[in-house]
Amino acid sequence: MGEVGCSARVQREAMAHDVAKDIAALVKGLATTFKHLGRPATTVQYPEEKRPVSPRYRGRHMLMRYEDGLERCIGCSLCAGACPSRAIYVEAAENTDGERHSPGERYARRYEINLIRCIFCGMCEEVCPTQAIVLGHDYELADYDRADFIYTKERLLVPQPTKGPTSPPTPSPTRGGGWVR
C-alpha cells in the first residue's frame, strides 16, 4: 500500500505544479493586458479611414497620359521584356495622322498586366523610357474572379485630363549625350 500512496502523492504534486504554471501564465497575460489598457487605441476604421502608405510603396499599376491627353506608352515592350514574372503583354500598332494615340510612331494597341503573376517589383517602371507605367499607392486589389485580375489598357489608363490641350514634352539632348524629357 505504501507504493500506491506514494504514486498518488507524486501525481498530486505534479498536478499542483501544472496548476501553478497555468496560474503564472494567466497572471503574465493579464499583466500584458493591463499594461496596454491605458494606451490610446491604434485601430483604424478601415473602409472609412485608410492608413498612409510609404512613399516608396508599389501598388496598383497605372498607364499615364501627357497633359494633352495622349498616352505616354509608345508600345516599345521594354516593360514586358524586363518583367521577371512575364506578367505584362504589349501589342504595338502604328499611329496614323487620322488616329493618334501617342506622340511617337507607335502606340500600345493592347496592354495587359496579369496581377496574379505580378510581383510588384517595379522593374517595368524603371525601364520605361517615357514614364508611362507607374506603380501607384492603391492597395485595394482584391477581387472574386481570376479573370478580373488581368488589367487591360482601359482599366490601367488614367482618366483624360480636364485642362486645356498643351503639347507633349519633346526630348532634348543633354551635355552627356543622353536624352531627357
Describe the structure.
The chain contains 4 helices and 7 strands. Helices cover 28% and strands 15% of the residues. Mean pLDDT is 87; it is low at 171-181. It is elongated. It has 2 domains: 1-35; 61-163, Alpha-Beta Plaits. The longest helix is centred in the N-terminal third of the chain and has 36 residues, at 2-37. The strands form 3 sheets. The protein has a 3-stranded antiparallel sheet with strand order 2-3-5. It has a two-stranded antiparallel sheet with strand order 1-4. It has 181 residues and is α+β, with helices and mostly antiparallel strands.
Give the helix/strand layout.
Blueprint (H helix, E strand, L loop, with lengths): L1 H36 L23 E3 L14 H5 L5 E7 L11 E9 L8 H5 L5 E3 L14 E2 L1 H4 L15 E2 L5 E2 L1
Antiparallel strand pairs: 1-4, 2-3, 3-5, 6-7
Give a quick set of tags describing it.
181 residues, alpha+beta, Alpha-Beta Plaits, 3-stranded antiparallel β-sheet, two-stranded antiparallel ribbon, 4 helices, 15% strand, disordered C terminus
Roughly how much helix do the residues carry, as a percent range? 25-40%
Residue windows where pLDDT falls under 50 for at least 5 positions: 171-181
Rg (CA only): 30 Å
The CATH topology of the largest domain comes to Alpha-Beta Plaits
Whole-number count of domains: 2
CATH class of the largest domain: Alpha Beta
Task: Determine the number of helices (DSSP H or I, runs of at least 4 residues).
Answer: 4
Coarse structural class:
alpha+beta
Strand residue percentage: 15-25%
Q: What is the global morphology?
A: elongated
Cα distance, first to last residue?
Answer: 97 Å
| Strand segment count | 7
Give the biggest sheet: 3 strands, antiparallel
CATH architecture of the largest domain: 2-Layer Sandwich
H/E topology pattern: HEHEEHEEHEE
Q: What is the topology, as strand order, of the major beta sheet? A: 2-3-5
Mean pLDDT: 87
